[in-house]
Amino acid sequence: MQKLEQIYEGKAKKVFKTDDPNLFIVDYKDDATAFNGLKKGTITGKGVINNQMTNRFMAKLEKAGVPTHFVEELSERETLVKKVSIVPLEVIIRNISAGSFAKRYGVEEGIVFDKPTIEFSYKNDDLGDPLLNTSHALALKLASPEEIETIKKYAFAVNDFLKAFWSGCGVTLVDFKLEFGRLEDGTIVLADEISPDTCRLWDSKTNEKLDKDRFRRDLGGVEDAYEEVMRRMMGAI
Length: 237
Ligand code: ADP
Ligand code: UDP
Fold this sequence. Notes:
Blueprint: E1 3-9, E2 13-18, E3 23-28, E4 31-34, E5 39-42, H1 46-63, E6 70-73, E7 78-82, E8 85-86, E9 89-96, H2 99-105, E10 112-122, E11 131-132, H3 134-139, H4 145-167, E12 171-182, E13 188-191, E14 199-203, H5 213-216, H6 222-236
Antiparallel strand pairs: 1-2, 2-3, 3-7, 4-5, 6-7, 8-12, 9-10, 9-12, 10-11, 12-13, 12-14
């Protein structure tokens, strides 16, 4: 597989073409951003952890019946993925109140929900990823009704899987963000990443934050937290 020109550089990853028109290579960086790019920094070793963690989860999710873009891990930071056209929705599942949910609705963090919630944001940095509902997504033609149903079904299946997995590692899955894409034939698959950048992970005993909130909130010990969750994952795999 030949790595050809870079087609995109995002906040956390670069995307390259390959000599196969249906495959891309994603290359994970140590760059970290928060608050829609206003806060910038580096989390040393993050790219390696996020690449390896994402790939292990994607492989397991495929087996659990959720199709994904994952093809093959090429190196510590590089992965071969199926090229998709990204559905411009950030799909957020929450098991416990935190972050923008707590802020928006004026509640404390840490309220355990009876059932997980799902919400969508319009993936659009210029607009600051505004929250939208299904009818807005349909009005904007971001996805078809069938695609939205499929995305919801997969997102809850990912939650069931991840929640159980992390629970076995002494980690509470608070919330996370997923992205989905369309293959050439229109099939919806899980894309992008599943990592401490995109999930809130709390130590089950102490509720210590083991994710990007340590960077967002200047809590210190950011690298240690990423290493700790990776270590726990590897112990359970
Ligand atoms: P951002 O664009 O938010 O800064 P990243 O730095 O993670 O995010 O950049 C990676 C980009 O690649 C994202 O825009 C993501 O939607 C996109 N992407 C992820 N997986 C695929 C894929 N399989 N095919 C095409 N694009 C993808
Ligand atoms: N999230 C993400 N990318 C985003 C927005 C959110 O990965 O652009 C993740 C975030 O890490 C958390 C979950 O989605 O695990 C819910 O985030 P929230 O809406 O609370 O927003 P935030 O507090 O990050 O502003």
